[in-house]
Amino acid sequence: MPTLCCNGVELHVERAGQGPRLLYCNGSGATLAAVPWLLNRLAERFDVVAFDYRGMGASAPISEPYAMADAAADVAGLLDAFGWERTAMLGWSFGGMVAQEFAVSFPERLERLALLSTSPGGPQPAADGPALDIRVAGGAPGRCGPGQAHRWRGIGWPE
Questions:
Q1: What does the alpha-carbon distance between residue 58 and residue 23 come to, in Å, rounded to a whole number?
Q2: What single DSSP character describes residue 137?
Q3: What is the pTM of this model?
Q4: Beta bridge partners of 24
Q5: Left (φ > 0), alpha (ψ -120 to 50) or beta: where does 19 sit?
Q6: Which of 12, 154, 21, 34 is nearest to 92 (CA)?
Q7: Would you give per-residue pLDDT tens digits along the chain (159 residues)?
Q8: C-alpha torsion angle, residues 60, 38, 45, 72 (rounded to 10)
Q9: Which residues contact 94 (CB under 8 A, 6 or more apart)?
């Protein structure tokens, strides 16, 4: 697929599959060239759009630093380019942070959000926040209390 101009930056984009719409956000340091196995698997069930971030992979080089809000705006620009009003998103690692920023900045454009091996970013997640509604593999609803959320967001192991 060609590169698309989103927010003044040329981004390399790939699209494959048929089914419900899914936008995939990769981890930092990884490019689409590193994850064809995942994209091919997702394309078996979804209409998948994936891209290389600014200055990475086959996307155009950049000369200025960018913020998480810029990456989320790039995602919104991709949706516009494909004519997608809304989509489900899958964010892996850094891509999970981009997906969370997108969810906060463009909630009306998000149908569902799946996060893999990620964090909310920032210096330290709040351990005393409200409980989180979660869905575990298989779709079973559950609750995650503040203590659990802190452990899960930290090193991942209970004390």
A1: 18
A2: T
A3: 0.77
A4: 50, 90
A5: left
A6: 34
A7: 589 999 899 999 999 999 999 999 999 888 999 999 999 999 999 999 999 999 999 999 999 899 999 999 999 999 999 999 999 999 999 999 999 999 999 999 999 999 999 988 776 555 554 444 444 444 444 444 444 333 333 333 333
A8: -40
A9: 25, 26, 27, 28, 29, 118
Q: Which residues are catalytic?
A: 93
Q: Is 127 helix (H, G, I), strand (E, B) or coil?
A: coil
114 has which bridge partners?
Answer: 90
Q: What is the CA radius of gyration of the chain?
A: 16
- Strand locations in 17-140, DSSP E? 21-25, 47-51, 87-92, 110-116, 132-135
HSE at residue 71, side-chain half, CA atoms within 13 A, is 25
Q: Is 101 exposed, middle or buried (0-12, 13-18, 19+ CB in 10 A)?
A: buried
Residue 112 to residue 114: CA distance in whole angstroms: 7
